[in-house]
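Researcher: We're teaching a course module on how sequence relates to structure. For the next exercise, students receive a sequence and then see the predicted structure as tokens, so they can try to spot secondary structure elements on their own. Here is the exercise chain.
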Amino acid sequence: MKKQSDLKRNQNFAARKCRLIFWTMLPVALIAAAMFSGCATQSSSPNGALEETLKGQATNSDASTTVSPELITLREGDVVKVSFPGSSALDTTQLIRRDGRITLPLIGEVDAAGLTPPALEKKLVDLYAPQLASKQVTVEVISSSFPVYVTGMVLHPGKILSDHPITALEAVMEAGGFDYNTANPRDVVVIRREGNVMKNYKINLKAVLQGKASEPFYMKPGDIIYVPERFNVF
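Model: And here is the predicted structure for the students to work with:
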């Protein structure tokens, strides 16, 4: 009987010990599980955010680099490709000349400057109507540039061509820069044709060179920049 009593007491003691160990280790196990879950969540979240950011940037980049043909106005110096899907032998690439025209097979001279590509397409469909069975013509801008003329006290006066927005100071730099022995960059004049009127705009490029805050003066096709001579008073 005594042996049975000792055995039962030992079994009860072992059971209590196991329960004590279980309840002691349970909080530790729960904390470890929570930490593991938190680490997994934090490590995946930034990657997911980065992927969404990259997707957004790609979408915005595509949107910003896509220019609708309706927003493009053809001008002197532009190179356009004219294609005839039904008559590929007539396909041609043309430079819009200073008179604003291009030369096309069968119909000759065509005014292109001042039109958008879709407007020129419609015009060509009408002009080619007697010669072509297919009423389809496409106009694609291959390259676009515009002239600006720089004269006066610069190192290389003459015409420059730009295929991107350009300021008056940048145009002067394209012409070799100011002749600092004679130039007066304070009183530069931009001559611009607006309709049938020639207007003058006086700009102080010396202030720009000195780092003073000022809005950039952007050129338009055909603008003339005149850098006057500096007069020394003795």
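Model: If you want an answer key for the exercise: The CA atoms of residues 73 and 158 lie 25 Å apart. Residues 69-143 form a domain with the wza like fold fold (CATH 3.30.1950.10).
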